[in-house]
Every structure is written in structure tokens, then in C-alpha cells.
Specification:
heterodimer, A: 102 residues, mainly alpha, 2 domains, 74% helix, B: alpha/beta, Rossmann fold
């Protein structure tokens, strides 16, 4: 393994902590109205684990590792593709009151 | 394209993920938010493919095609009432994906893993596997396949925590000696069992909190994967997801005046009120009304506030309710909706159901905004909600399960109309004095039938 230096580890932990606080701050401002699409969107974004699967697959690996990582690609892809699509479907339903009245 | 570009593509992708959450803060920008997220994902995957020449592109294409075949039909055809189930299922998929990648990484690297990386990897796998089975149980409860009642037994918490203890002990053993590959399936299995035990005892009322917690875990396991692989994109995306789930879980707990630990280990929902107390509250004081009487009240009102609960979705009455409100508005009545934070089965679920029924989102008001207005409200129409309008919650000294829970102050309205099948208790299992209040009229029946009857009566008048 490309051994991580202690600086790398510290920088990564720093990024993790800062991204967590940024996430808390961003989500605090999301309207309650949109909490369901927020959840389906973050869920789709968590499909980035597909990136991790690709990194693992790029290295020479035996059958077990290939099977595990390829299954992960399928699962994460279904999550991401489906997640963005259903978020779009939900958000399209939120519409403004028409000025003319009904 | 050259590999030197990859880190910059990752930065672009991270920025898009952050913008995605930022734009979700308001309805007007929210769709840009979703597109930004999707674009960020495409860039992330594209950049990774540039940087790492995956040997088997054929396998990748097949895997993505299978994923799309599962994900797309669900996303297109799932009814909005079932969005909580879909979310639980996708938490299961996402966390299993993260757990499998962690497992693959372990087998690829073992025994050449330092203790720091191994600890993170072990935590990542435990989180991933427990979220997988936990989410599957949540899915089955939400879909009402089986186990939809909380399953509690003597010593539940001790057993649950011991299983977690075993999983953690195996993790420590792996950190001390990463060459013990045989321990990994054992650790994975105990984490899977722990996920089942954790969620199986939780009742329907707590599902919004549980889903939010599982969302947070799924994000955290992706972030942990980033720490293991030294991939900063994964760290940021996972942390954003984890903190989002965490905030939602905290909001849900606050909305029910519960703590995290109480939700996970309390097993509330199994409490049953004694019969006498119910009779004491209701005896001879409950007034029932006919749809025509209620229709007359609604028509002559100047302001009506509708308080929907999950019973509305169960009866599939949201479209009928949307039509009734349009009709009332055409007669000059101001109609608004008071939405309790835990209405529905996941955070924000009721808003989605009403938006689908063509209710403009400006009419959907949060609890804190609508509560002061009940005093100037002529009719508060409660449809399929119970515990969230129960005045017993204000009695903070009492031992009832909802004491201290913030509620919608419908009883301050001139008249309260409650559409409900019977006087049966809600999730909390306690009687509701609102039903026997002087200014309350009960409209007994199925929510959809009654709303349709009201619409017909208003039209006919």
C-alpha cells in the first residue's frame, strides 16, 4: 500500500471535520418542506462509494475482490441513478400558487 | 485527458456537491441543487476512470447497467406514499456497497495494513453491515411486510449491546493482527445481526428518526472509506451525507421530545393505556357530526387550517383533500396546512404528499409558524392525526409517553373537526382529551370517504 504519512492522515481528518461542520451548517438552512428530497439527494450523493470501488478494481486483484467491488459498483450505481431521478421527481411537484387563483 | 487534471476534477465535484446542498435550501433553487449533485457525480466517476485504468470495463458496464435496471424503475414508478420505503432500501444498498468495498480493500491489502487504517476500516465495515440489515428491517416495517410492530423481549438491550460488543472485540483483534482474515466474516456477521436487533424493536412512530440515523451511518461509512483510501472526495461527500442525516435525526427527536438513546433502546409504542382512563376522558363528552354539518361550518369560515397526519396517507386521501381545499378557496375561504415535523413516515414526508396532491407549497406551514394563528382560525380540520394534536403532551409533569412533545395547538381554534375512524389511540397508546373538548366535533369514518363527502356537501349547498 502507498503508506500514508502522518501528515496525510492529519489532513484527511481535518477535511473530514471541516466537511462535517460545513454539512451541518448547510443542512440547518434547508427548509423543512424539502427534508424528504434532501434525504434522497444525500443518499444519491453517498453513491460516491462507487469511486472507492473503481479505485479498488483498478489494482490487480483476485476473483473475490473483483466480485465484491463489482457488486458494490452495481449497488452504488442503482443508488445514485435512482436517487437523483426520484429527487427530480419530488422537486418537480413543488409548485407555486398561481397568481390568477383557481 | 491527462492524469494531472484529476485532482482538479475532484475539487469541481466537491464544489458541486456543496452547492447542491446549498441550493436545496429553497424551493426555487432546489432543482439546480439536484442537477449540481448529479453533475458532481458524473465528474467524480469520470475523473476516477481517467486516473485508474480499470482492467475490466466490460464488468463495469454490466454492473452499472444492472444498477440502473434496479434503480430507475423504482425511482420512476414508486408512489410518493412509498418514498420512505425506497429511501430505506437505498440506504441498505448504499451501505452494503460501502461495506463490500471495505471488505474488498481488506482482502486485497491484508496483512499489510497499519493499525490506524485497520481501525477505520473495521469501523467502516461494522457501520456498513449494520446499516444494511437495519435498513432492510426498516424497509420491511415501512412496507408492512412483516415485523411492523416493535418486537421487544426481556433483556433486549443487554443482548443487542453484547452483539455490538462482540463485533467491536473482533474489530480490535483485527487491528492487532490484520493477517487473521478468518475473523472478518465473523465480524461482518455480528454487525449484520446487530443491525437487525437494533431496528427490530423500534415502532412505527419512530421510523422518521431511524431512517435519518441510518442515513447518517451510510454517509459516515462512505467518509471512512475515503480515509482508508486517502480519497478526499469520498471524505467530503460522506461527511456531508453523515451530517445531514445527523441533523434530521436530531430534529425528529426534538419534535417528539425524545433522546437518541431513548429512540434506539426505549421501545416506546408498546405502552397501552388502561381502559378506565379512556372512559374517564371520553364518557358522554364526545360529539359526533355529519358531513353536512361540517360542510356548513367550513363554507361559512373565513379561515381553515388543515392538520394532516399519516392516517391521511394510509387512506390515500391526499388528492381528495387537495380538491376540497381548492373548492373552499374558490368560495373565499383562506385555507392553510399545519405540518408537524414528524407527520408522515420520514422527515418532510407530508409536504411531499400534499405537493403531489397539487397543494401549493406556500400553504404548507411549519408548526411554529402556524401555532400562533389557531386563535384566529374558525375551523381546524384534523385528518388522520392523533398524538401530534393531543393536549396531554403539554402536561410535562405527567408520566404519559408524549409529555413535553411539541404539538399543534388546534384546540385554540373556534371549532375543531377531527376526521377519524374511531376513538382508538395513536402510536403513543393514550387517549386524546381533544376528542372530548367542548369545541371539538368528531367526523367518524374513513378519511378519504369523509373528505369526499365534505366536498360533495360543500358543492351541493
Amino acid at each position: 500500500m502507498e503508506e500514508l504519512s502522518s501528515t496525510d492522515i492529519a489532513v484527511n481528518l481535518l477535511i473530514f471535520v471541516m466537511a462535517t461542520f460545513l454539512g451541518l451548517e448547510l443542512v440547518r438552512h434547508v427548509s423543512r418542506l424539502l427534508h424528504t428530497p434532501l434525504m434522497s439527494l444525500t443518499n444519491a450523493i453517498s453513491g460516491v462509494s462507487v469511486v472507492a470501488a473503481l479505485v479498488v478494481l483498478a489494482r490487480p486483484s483476485d476473483t473475490l475482490v473483483t466480485v465484491l467491488a463489482t457488486t458494490a459498483v452495481a449497488l452504488a450505481a442503482s443508488n445514485s441513478i435512482g436517487g437523483f431521478m426520484i429527487t427530480e421527481r419530488i422537486l418537480r411537484m413543488f409548485r407555486k400558487q398561481e397568481k390568477t387563483g383557481r | 485527458m491527462s492524469v494531472q487534471l484529476v485532482p482538479y476534477l475532484y475539487i469541481a465535484s466537491v464544489a458541486l456537491f456543496i452547492l447542491s446542498l446549498k441550493w436545496l435550501s429553497g424551493v426555487r433553487t432546489s432543482r439546480f441543487g439536484n442537477w449540481a449533485g448529479a453533475l458532481g457525480m458524473v465528474i467524480a466517476v469520470g475523473a476516477t476512470l481517467i486516473a485508474f485504468k480499470a482492467g475490466r470495463y466490460d464488468l463495469l458496464v454490466i454492473a452499472v447497467a444492472i444498477g440502473a435496471l434496479i434503480g430507475v424503475p423504482i425511482a420512476l414508478f414508486m408512489p410518493m406514499t412509498a418514498v420512505p420505503q425506497r429511501t430505506a432500501l437505498s440506504h441498505a444498498f448504499g451501505s452494503l456497497a460501502a461495506a463490500l468495498v471495505g471488505t474488498a480493500e481488506f482482502y486485497q491489502k491484508s496483512p499489510d495494513i497499519n493499525s490506524f487504517t485497520m481501525s477505520i476500516l473495521a469501523v467502516e465495515m461494522i457501520l456498513g453491515y449494520l446499516t444494511f440489515t437495519g435498513s432492510l428491517i426498516a424497509f420491511s416495517k415501512l412496507q408492512e411486510l412483516f415485523l411492523d410492530r416493535p418486537i421487544t423481549y426481556k433483556g433486549r438491550n443487554i443482548i443487542t449491546l453484547s452483539v455490538l460488543g462482540i463485533a467491536l472485540a473482533l474489530a480490535v483483534a483485527l487491528v492487532l493482527d490484520p493477517s487473521q482474515t478468518v475473523l472478518l466474516p465473523l465480524m461482518a456477521a455480528t454487525a449484520l445481526v446487530f443491525g437487525i436487533l437494533l431496528v427490530i424493536g423500534i415502532g412505527g412512530a419512530d421510523m422518521p428518526t431511524v431512517i435519518a440515523i441510518l442515513n447518517s451511518y451510510a454517509g459516515l461509512s462512505a467518509a471512512a472509506l475515503g480515509l482508508v483510501l486517502n480519497n478526499k472526495l469520498l471524505i467530503v461527500a460522506g461527511a456531508l451525507d453523515g451530517s445531514s442525516g445527523f441533523i434530521l435525526a436530531v430534529l425528529m427527536c426534538k419534535a417528539m421530545n425524545r433522546s437518541f438513546l431513548n429512540v434506539l433502546f426505549g421501545g416506546v409504542g408498546a405502552v397501552k393505556a388502561s381502559k378506565e382512563k379512556e372512559e374517564e376522558v371520553y364518557s358522554g363528552r364526545v360529539k359526533s357530526a355529519s358531513p353536512e354539518e361540517v360542510a356548513a361550518l367550513l363554507e361559512t369560515a373565513s379561515r381553515v387550517v388543515v392538520v394532516p397526519g399519516y392516517g391521511l396517507a394510509v387512506a390515500q386521501a391526499q388528492h381528495a383533500l387537495g380538491d376540497l381545499c381548492k373548492l373552499l378557496e374558490s368560495k373565499g375561504v383562506v385555507v392553510e396546512f399545519g405540518i408537524h415535523p414528524v407527520a408522515g413516515r420520514m422527515p418532510g414526508h407530508m409536504n411531499v404528499l400534499l405537493a403531489e396532491a397539487d397543494v401549493p407549497y406556500e400553504k404548507l406551514r411549519e408548526m411554529d409558524a402556524i401555532n400562533p394563528t389557531f386563535r384566529e382560525t374558525d375551523v381546524a380540520l384534523v385528518v388522520g392525526a392523533n398524538d401530534v394534536v393531543n393536549p396531554l403532551a403539554r402536561d410535562t409533569d405527567s408520566a404519559n409517553p408524549i409529555a413535553g412533545m411539541p404539538i399543534l395547538d388546534v384546540d385554540a381554534a373556534k371549532t375543531v373537526v377531527v376526521i377519524k375512524r374511531s376513538l382508538s389511540p395513536g402510536f403513543a397508546g393514550i387517549p386524546n382529551p381533544l376528542f372530548a373538548a367542548d369545541n371539538t366535533l368528531m367526523l367518524f369514518g374513513d378519511a378519504k370517504q369523509m373528505v369526499l363527502a365534505l366536498t360533495a356537501a360543500v358543492k351541493g349547498a
